[in-house]
């Protein structure tokens, strides 16, 4: 498993301590405060990697001075300065290549949000699905000239046959789901 970045990493953050990803982007101080409330069990105002259950890679991204401790101020600076990576492998405690619900530190809704293929585990496949969805949404935004949320035949830049091949439900327009790589391979 590799480190995850961008949308998947933010989703992972949102799922474990509920909704922290968006809050981390909007209000880093509030996100860090919630992490301290949740993980600073000895209330010493410092987080160690042993206390912080979102993975060693993520912790290391917050530990700017690399002293093994994250203070509130350091956590806020880290969130403001750089995208944070989450190491899915760190959550995979039995090292079998995926994160099961038993290994997951967050709630069921968060787990379900990350389990994109609904197979009961979080794996690289889920990351690939999410990235496909992100690409499909960008593609739709680019092609959807009238901004109605679908791509009509008139907006489609290629020939009729390629449009028909994409139009899986045969409704005469292409949705974000139909523009994804997974659906084109079906």
Detailed description of the structure:
- Helix content is 50%, strand content 10%.
- It contains eleven helices and eight strands.
- It has a two-stranded antiparallel sheet.
- α1 (6-15) packs antiparallel against α7, α2 crosses α3 (28-39) and α3 (28-39) packs across α5.
List the helices and strands and how they pair.
Blueprint: E1 3-4, H1 6-15, H2 20-26, H3 28-39, E2 46-48, H4 56-62, E3 69-71, H5 72-81, E4 86-87, H6 88-91, E5 99-100, H7 108-114, E6 121-122, H8 124-143, E7 151-152, H9 160-166, E8 173-174, H10 176-179, H11 181-185
Antiparallel strand pairs: 1-4, 2-3, 5-6, 7-8
Q: What keyword list fits this structure?
A:
single chain, 186 residues, mainly alpha, two-stranded antiparallel ribbon, two-stranded antiparallel sheet, 50% helix, disordered N terminus
Largest sheet features? 2 strands, antiparallel
What structural class should be given to the helix and strand makeup?
mainly alpha
Instruction: Give the percentage of residues in beta strands.
Output: 5-15%
Q: In sequence order, what are the helices and strands, one letter per element?
A: EHHHEHEHEHEHEHEHEHH
Average residue-wise pLDDT: 79
User: Number of DSSP helices?
Assistant: 11
Number of strands: 8
List the strand order in the largest sheet: 1-4
Uncertain regions spanning at least 5 consecutive residues: 1-20
| Helical percentage | 40-55%
Nearest-angstrom radius of gyration? 20 Å
Shape descriptor = elongated
Gap between N and C termini: 26 Å
